Amino acid sequence: MSRKLAAAVLSAAVIAGGLFAAPASAAKISNGAACSKVNAMTTVSGYKYKCAKNSMVKNSKLTWLSVECLTAVSQYQAAVKAQKSVGNVAEQTAQLDAELQKATEALASVTTAYENARAQVTKSQASLNASTNASEKLALSGALSKLANAVLILSGSKSKLSAQVNDLESKKALLLSAPAAFKDSISDAKSSANLLCRKGY
What we know:
Blueprint: H1 3-20, H2 24-28, E1 41-44, E2 47-52, E3 63-66, H3 67-86, H4 89-130, H5 134-196
Helix pairs in contact: 3-5, 4-5
Protein backbone atom coordinates (compact mmCIF):
# COMPACT_ATOMS: atom_id res chain seq x y z
CA MET A 1 0.00 0.00 0.00
CA SER A 2 1.45 3.37 -0.99
CA ARG A 3 2.09 6.04 1.60
CA LYS A 4 -0.56 8.27 0.05
CA LEU A 5 -3.19 5.51 0.20
CA ALA A 6 -2.25 4.61 3.79
CA ALA A 7 -2.52 8.27 4.80
CA ALA A 8 -5.92 8.55 3.13
CA VAL A 9 -7.22 5.42 4.93
CA LEU A 10 -5.89 6.69 8.26
CA SER A 11 -7.51 10.11 7.73
CA ALA A 12 -10.84 8.47 6.89
CA ALA A 13 -10.66 6.37 10.04
CA VAL A 14 -9.96 9.41 12.20
CA ILE A 15 -12.84 11.36 10.62
CA ALA A 16 -15.22 8.42 11.04
CA GLY A 17 -14.16 8.03 14.64
CA GLY A 18 -14.82 11.71 15.21
CA LEU A 19 -18.29 11.40 13.72
CA PHE A 20 -19.48 8.37 15.67
CA ALA A 21 -17.63 8.55 18.99
CA ALA A 22 -19.11 10.64 21.84
CA PRO A 23 -17.09 13.72 22.75
CA ALA A 24 -14.60 12.99 25.51
CA SER A 25 -15.96 15.82 27.69
CA ALA A 26 -19.54 14.55 27.44
CA ALA A 27 -18.49 11.04 28.41
CA LYS A 28 -16.93 12.35 31.61
CA ILE A 29 -19.99 14.27 32.81
CA SER A 30 -21.95 12.34 35.41
CA ASN A 31 -22.71 12.57 39.13
CA GLY A 32 -19.49 13.15 41.05
CA ALA A 33 -17.39 14.19 38.06
CA ALA A 34 -15.31 17.30 38.82
CA CYS A 35 -16.32 20.63 37.34
CA SER A 36 -15.03 24.17 37.80
CA LYS A 37 -17.77 26.71 37.01
CA VAL A 38 -20.39 26.91 39.77
CA ASN A 39 -24.01 26.69 38.55
CA ALA A 40 -22.93 25.77 35.03
CA MET A 41 -25.54 23.61 33.29
CA THR A 42 -25.14 20.93 30.63
CA THR A 43 -27.18 18.12 29.09
CA VAL A 44 -25.80 14.67 28.33
CA SER A 45 -27.93 11.99 26.67
CA GLY A 46 -31.10 13.80 27.70
CA TYR A 47 -30.01 14.16 31.35
CA LYS A 48 -29.42 17.63 32.79
CA TYR A 49 -26.49 18.29 35.11
CA LYS A 50 -25.45 21.27 37.21
CA CYS A 51 -22.04 22.16 38.57
CA ALA A 52 -22.57 22.45 42.33
CA LYS A 53 -21.58 21.14 45.75
CA ASN A 54 -23.49 18.22 47.22
CA SER A 55 -24.60 19.49 50.64
CA MET A 56 -25.02 15.91 51.86
CA VAL A 57 -21.31 15.25 51.43
CA LYS A 58 -18.87 16.62 54.01
CA ASN A 59 -16.28 19.03 52.57
CA SER A 60 -17.94 18.67 49.19
CA LYS A 61 -16.21 20.09 46.11
CA LEU A 62 -17.73 21.27 42.85
CA THR A 63 -18.99 18.31 40.85
CA TRP A 64 -21.59 17.64 38.20
CA LEU A 65 -24.90 16.70 39.82
CA SER A 66 -28.00 15.58 37.97
CA VAL A 67 -31.19 17.61 38.33
CA GLU A 68 -32.82 14.55 39.92
CA CYS A 69 -30.02 14.40 42.48
CA LEU A 70 -30.39 18.09 43.37
CA THR A 71 -34.16 17.73 43.72
CA ALA A 72 -33.74 14.73 46.04
CA VAL A 73 -31.22 16.66 48.16
CA SER A 74 -33.67 19.58 48.43
CA GLN A 75 -36.41 17.18 49.57
CA TYR A 76 -34.08 15.74 52.22
CA GLN A 77 -33.21 19.24 53.48
CA ALA A 78 -36.91 20.16 53.61
CA ALA A 79 -37.66 17.03 55.69
CA VAL A 80 -34.88 17.88 58.16
CA LYS A 81 -36.10 21.49 58.39
CA ALA A 82 -39.68 20.33 59.01
CA GLN A 83 -38.50 18.09 61.85
CA LYS A 84 -36.65 20.98 63.51
CA SER A 85 -39.68 23.27 63.16
CA VAL A 86 -41.72 20.98 65.41
CA GLY A 87 -39.47 21.83 68.36
CA ASN A 88 -39.73 20.14 71.74
CA VAL A 89 -42.50 17.56 71.39
CA ALA A 90 -42.61 16.72 75.11
CA GLU A 91 -43.01 20.39 76.05
CA GLN A 92 -45.75 20.95 73.48
CA THR A 93 -47.53 17.76 74.56
CA ALA A 94 -47.54 18.94 78.18
CA GLN A 95 -49.03 22.25 77.09
CA LEU A 96 -51.71 20.49 75.06
CA ASP A 97 -52.49 18.22 78.00
CA ALA A 98 -53.09 21.26 80.22
CA GLU A 99 -55.40 22.82 77.61
CA LEU A 100 -57.17 19.52 77.08
CA GLN A 101 -57.76 19.02 80.81
CA LYS A 102 -59.15 22.53 81.14
CA ALA A 103 -61.45 22.09 78.13
CA THR A 104 -62.59 18.65 79.32
CA GLU A 105 -63.45 19.98 82.78
CA ALA A 106 -65.34 22.90 81.26
CA LEU A 107 -67.23 20.52 78.99
CA ALA A 108 -68.18 18.32 81.95
CA SER A 109 -69.42 21.36 83.91
CA VAL A 110 -71.44 22.73 81.00
CA THR A 111 -72.86 19.29 80.24
CA THR A 112 -74.07 18.97 83.85
CA ALA A 113 -75.64 22.44 83.73
CA TYR A 114 -77.25 21.59 80.38
CA GLU A 115 -78.76 18.37 81.71
CA ASN A 116 -80.02 20.16 84.83
CA ALA A 117 -81.59 22.90 82.75
CA ARG A 118 -83.33 20.34 80.57
CA ALA A 119 -84.65 18.59 83.69
CA GLN A 120 -85.92 21.93 85.02
CA VAL A 121 -87.68 22.61 81.73
CA THR A 122 -89.45 19.25 81.93
CA LYS A 123 -90.41 19.88 85.57
CA SER A 124 -91.62 23.44 84.93
CA GLN A 125 -93.58 22.29 81.89
CA ALA A 126 -95.33 19.66 84.03
CA SER A 127 -96.11 22.23 86.74
CA LEU A 128 -97.43 24.65 84.14
CA ASN A 129 -99.68 22.00 82.64
CA ALA A 130 -101.01 21.00 86.06
CA SER A 131 -101.59 24.54 87.36
CA THR A 132 -105.04 26.12 87.22
CA ASN A 133 -104.04 29.41 88.81
CA ALA A 134 -103.66 32.16 86.21
CA SER A 135 -100.97 34.15 88.06
CA GLU A 136 -99.05 30.96 88.85
CA LYS A 137 -99.27 29.85 85.22
CA LEU A 138 -97.93 33.25 84.12
CA ALA A 139 -94.98 32.99 86.53
CA LEU A 140 -94.23 29.42 85.45
CA SER A 141 -94.47 30.43 81.81
CA GLY A 142 -91.86 33.19 82.35
CA ALA A 143 -89.57 30.82 84.23
CA LEU A 144 -89.97 28.20 81.52
CA SER A 145 -89.02 30.73 78.84
CA LYS A 146 -85.82 31.65 80.72
CA LEU A 147 -84.97 27.96 81.22
CA ALA A 148 -85.51 27.24 77.52
CA ASN A 149 -83.17 30.10 76.63
CA ALA A 150 -80.59 28.77 79.10
CA VAL A 151 -80.83 25.33 77.48
CA LEU A 152 -80.12 26.85 74.05
CA ILE A 153 -77.10 28.79 75.34
CA LEU A 154 -75.73 25.78 77.22
CA SER A 155 -76.28 23.56 74.18
CA GLY A 156 -74.21 25.95 72.04
CA SER A 157 -71.45 26.11 74.65
CA LYS A 158 -71.47 22.33 74.96
CA SER A 159 -71.06 21.92 71.19
CA LYS A 160 -68.16 24.41 71.05
CA LEU A 161 -66.36 22.81 74.00
CA SER A 162 -66.89 19.35 72.54
CA ALA A 163 -65.36 20.49 69.24
CA GLN A 164 -62.45 22.08 71.15
CA VAL A 165 -61.78 18.86 73.05
CA ASN A 166 -61.84 16.82 69.83
CA ASP A 167 -59.49 19.32 68.16
CA LEU A 168 -57.02 19.20 71.05
CA GLU A 169 -57.11 15.41 71.10
CA SER A 170 -56.38 15.33 67.35
CA LYS A 171 -53.50 17.80 67.75
CA LYS A 172 -52.04 15.72 70.56
CA ALA A 173 -52.27 12.50 68.55
CA LEU A 174 -50.64 14.20 65.57
CA LEU A 175 -47.89 15.66 67.73
CA LEU A 176 -47.15 12.31 69.36
CA SER A 177 -46.88 10.64 65.95
CA ALA A 178 -44.68 13.43 64.54
CA PRO A 179 -41.26 12.10 65.65
CA ALA A 180 -41.79 8.72 63.99
CA ALA A 181 -43.33 10.30 60.89
CA PHE A 182 -40.45 12.77 60.49
CA LYS A 183 -37.91 10.02 61.08
CA ASP A 184 -39.43 7.92 58.29
CA SER A 185 -39.69 10.95 56.00
CA ILE A 186 -36.04 11.89 56.53
CA SER A 187 -34.91 8.29 56.07
CA ASP A 188 -36.82 7.94 52.80
CA ALA A 189 -35.58 11.29 51.49
CA LYS A 190 -31.98 10.47 52.39
CA SER A 191 -32.23 7.06 50.75
CA SER A 192 -33.59 8.64 47.55
CA ALA A 193 -30.86 11.28 47.53
CA ASN A 194 -28.12 8.69 48.00
CA LEU A 195 -29.57 6.64 45.16
CA LEU A 196 -30.01 9.50 42.70
CA CYS A 197 -26.69 11.17 43.58
CA ARG A 198 -24.55 8.04 43.25
CA LYS A 199 -21.41 8.49 41.24
CA GLY A 200 -21.61 7.70 37.58
CA TYR A 201 -25.37 8.21 37.33
